[in-house]
Fold each of these.
Amino acid sequence: MADRVAGSRRGLNAGVQAVAAVVLVAGVTGGIWGLSGALPNNNGTGDPVRCSDRVGTPPPKRVSGEQLCQALNRADLPALLGTPDERARTADGHDSWITLDGGTKIASPEANVTLQTYSVKLSASDDRLSVSQGLDLLPKAEPRQILGHPAVLYSDRTIALTFGSGKAESGPGGIARSLLVAKDPKDGGGSFEIAIWRQDDVVPDDAALFRVAELVLPTVPGWKTG
């Protein structure tokens, strides 16, 4: 029987990672990123999964992929997602950079945690774009507020990969729901993004996405309360 996995495309913040030798297509800003969580990293034991070794070079004085992973991979994540009987199967953080026209580099760390039902991605960007600008750049984006911070809610399509008969095939997957949230209430530039999608291609629960955002984001270095 073929195995089928899905990964959310990159949204407003583009980055690069490679996991299980699978790389997916670009998102809004033209970066590419790889599929996370194809294989469990809990060594087959019943112990809680830990964040895997960091990939890439952590940006100086910026939040790292490892720090994002530690914030996202919390014990109550399954309950926040509405699947309290599940547990994290994989957890990893990655550090990468985006090079803009003119040679400016922007740190683009991210973390991914997968469960049986859901996958969750947390990423950060230090670009100068305000989150409010995402309303014009992202498809069918809706303005929101997360703990007093401007936010944008939008949908994206995942890419489904099917492995079987010694080859892999790709095709349209399910829907990912994403929240792009300003790092500070004044929306002065820089953002965090949380995306969730389901392995069964059912549309994710927005309430679960907001629960994760409201509890995870305040624990991430760089989150400002005022």
Note: Residues 206-216 form the longest helix (11 residues).
Amino acid sequence: MPAGVTWGQYIAFSSAAMLSMLAGSQIVHQYYKPLRDLNEYINKELRSLPDNVQVKIRQELQDEGILNKT
């Protein structure tokens, strides 16, 4: 193991790091709600593209279930 760390210490540190990372991302999504306005953001960005590209991308996103049909 790197730096003379035992397997037990390595696994304990890795588990603690993963749990804190997962808890942190969950807190961010509950507090800031970053995906709430995703459809508005996508539509705003699509307006800057040419019409033929907008239609194609919008259809692909709707087929994948990412963009709501409007």
Note: The chain has a mean pLDDT of 90.
Amino acid sequence: MSGGVMSRLYDLYAKDLLTPSQAAVYAEVSESTIRQWVHRGLLEAALPSQGRGIPALYNRPDLDDVKRILAEREAARAA
């Protein structure tokens, strides 16, 4: 992806795209939990890692969805 396109995406979605560490803070979990969610197929990067130290970016609404799904599962288990 060219630098121009990437910077444009940041302009358009800056408030919703989060690095793994930002996603962990937002979701109130550890970065390890974010990795587990990805591994389990609960979360997918909005923008995959571009290598060379450029992390994957996660979408806030996707994180909200994962937390909702996990809360619903926990409530169903408790019922």
Note: Helices lie at 3-13, 20-27, 31-39, 60-78.
